[in-house]
Amino acid sequence: MTNTVRLRPLLFSFYREQQKCNFQFPPVLEAMASDPPPPQLTERWANVALENKSGHIFKLEVMHQYTGHEVQSSGWHILKPNEKLTVLKVNFNTGVFTTGTDNWKVHGLKKKEKDSQDFTESWRSGTGAAGTDWKKHTLRSEDDGEVTEIKVFESEIQFVSKSGTSTTSFYRHDE
Questions:
Q1: What three-state secondary structure class fits 91?
Q2: Which among 68, 170, 168, 174 has a CA at the least distance from the CA of 124?
Q3: pTM for the full predicted model
Q4: Are 29 and 57 within one domain?
Q5: Do 89 and 168 fall into the same domain?
Q6: Pair 56, 71: CB distance under 8 Å
Q7: How far is it, in rounded angstroms, from Cα 162 to Cα 144?
Q8: What domain range is 167 assigned to?
Q9: pLDDT tens, residue by residue, 130-145
């Protein structure tokens, strides 16, 4: 396949020149010259549903960045325990020559007490001390138009899509 891709432009130009001389290609080369090029990039999308499995009320934000694209943010959403909400539509690419990855962050503010309106404990996903690290959970062609679920547990976050599941830690970082 790789050789076909590299030879195709040469075959087309050679073919055009030889047509002026009534030269006939062997059938194998004729087929290679007329094959359509392989798909190089397909733009895709997925919905993101956020689910609070922690047992606490949280105000949560999801951020997604496909390599080279702008950061997509869900904004902040208050979720009670076991509540699930679609919060974001993300864009990503697939194809033979794509090299990008999908990177994710989840930030949270935990409600101090049930009767309080204060969200005072700051939480986040990942393992970096500065909070700059992103969790890689790459979306694939089978995730196109589907829902990727982000499940927030007491001490971890799961990214669940049709193509697979990834996990990362979820921890308090304001202490």
A1: strand
A2: 170
A3: 0.74
A4: no
A5: yes
A6: no
A7: 9
A8: 42-172
A9: 556 799 999 999 999 9
